[in-house]
Amino acid sequence: MQTLRDRLLTDNEIAPLIISADKVAHVQLNNPLQHALLVLIKSGYTAIPVLDSSFHLRGMISKSLILDSLLGEHDFELDRLSTLTVGDCMNQDVPCIRPEATFSKALSLSINHPFLCVVDDQKAFTGILTRRSILKLISKYMHQH
Ligand code: AMP
Description:
This protein is an alpha/beta fold. The protein contains 7 helices and 7 strands. The chain starts with a helix and ends with a helix. The mean pLDDT is 93. The protein binds adenosine monophosphate (AMP). Adenosine monophosphate binds at residues 19, 23-25, 45-48, 114-115, 128, 130-132.
């Protein structure tokens, strides 16, 4: 009988788990922070990818990064929502994975990140891989006989 490990090693590709770029909420580098906050609140996501005009991955923006950048010495400075851009506040250190990466690599990376950005060699954005989809697959295999 196949063990869970055998099954995960056989089911080696992440491709079927990827949420394709056209279904991923994102913002652009030069968008005002206000726009990013609206997209985050409306979508209900904690963080979303930041792309440039040629659809290349440039970073990630989150509600907490936005709140941090609004914080002045004593108060929140709400005018920064229109004066700062996403590029001013985003995190450029984004966990990435290639579309042809193995499931095992995705599993290791997702320990520390709720989602991974899927990019090709030129950093063109092809989608995301969530920790949820990885855990769902593991759970499916655990409960199969
Ligand atoms: P989930 O596992 O569905 O809770 O997603 C985990 C995180 O992945 C979310 O909080 C978002 O940061 C990101 N995410 C998931 N789906 C999307 C999507 N369609 N568009 C943008 N970000 C997403």
